[in-house]
Amino acid sequence: MIQAIGLTSNPRKELPPAVDDVSFEARAGRVTALLGAVPAETAEVLRLMLQLEPGRGVTYFRGRPLNRIAHPSREVGILLGDVPGHPARTVRGQLRMLCAATGVPVTRADEVLEVVGLVSLRDERLGTLSRGMDRRLGLACALLADPHTLVLNAPAEALSAREAAWLHAMLRAHAQQGGTVLFTTSDPKEAARTADRVITLEQGCVVADQDAADFARTRLRPRVAIRSPHAARLLALLTKEARVARRSVEVVREDGNRLSVYGSTTADVGETAYKHGVLLHQLADEVGDSGPPPPPQEPSATAASHPGT
User: What is the mean pLDDT of the chain?
Assistant: First the structure.
């Protein structure tokens, strides 16, 4: 279990602290997501927890601060970014070096290579690894001393969907074995989909601490996802119909031929498309953007265009 109490970074010049009085718990047997739109803020929370950054507050790992733990790597496995190491060093060589540094048997290197699926790449140089393989190696480094707790900074960032799914399955397996898992993300949908609990950070402060189901219900907006070769025409039709019916519907043009519709249903959108002969390649309910639902407005329809989420 992790207990973070009053974490506050030292202010720089006249600016307020980037992290201000952050307190939360991450329980054993559960995956906890620390969500923040500014990755630097969530990363700084982790550095404060791990005493890598000067500041105030304390973090207990199963009742002890990190500097009171005789062998920290056996209690907390850490992944804060790309694996640091000489690009010419091999994958196995990197792990064996860490075995010597942490006092674990050198045979543990081959064991964790098996766990993370890197046995076939054990003789590859660090400088040749893809993003996904580097993340696997980073997780192997974190698991090397068989820690109870995993603390990971944006572990799924820039991974393919397949690699991200693999990583989240590994974190889930660690929690199911009784371990504690804390990871950061800037993607609210990732947090809702993969964590048991979501702690939301805004402007350096905790603004919500919720079960994932409550987070998805209260802080994510449901939407109808549409893909159509006639997206522009359908956008105009949906906007016009909502305006005539005086319903508050937001139609957003996403990348390519995709639309997101907030405040409507798949049945209503499908009926409009069918009535006007608009071909649909996708029509589905999804979870949309982070944040509470927009405040009530005068009955109207609005159309906007911005990059997809």
Answer: 90
Q: What percent of the chain has pLDDT over 70?
A: 93
Q: pLDDT tens for residues 58-105?
A: 999 999 999 999 999 999 999 998 888 899 999 999 999 999 999 999
132 conformational bin, left if phi > 0, alpha if psi -120 to 50, beta if neither: alpha
What are the distances in angstroms from CA 300 to CA 240, 258, 295?
10, 22, 13
Residues of 99-126 as b/e, b for ≥16 C-beta within 10 angstroms?
Answer: beeeebeeebbeebbeebebeebbebbb
Contact 199, 211 (CB under 8 A): no
Give the pLDDT of residue 305: 33
How many Å apart are CA 90 and CA 137, to the nearest integer?
11
For each of the domains in the chain, give its residue range(s) and CATH number, in order of start.
2-203 (3.40.50.300), 221-305 (3.30.70.100)
Distance (Å, rounded) from C-alpha 5 to C-alpha 63?
A: 12
Beta bridge partners of 26: 2
Please report which confidence band the pLDDT of residue 290 belongs to, taking 50, 70 and 90 as the band edges.
low
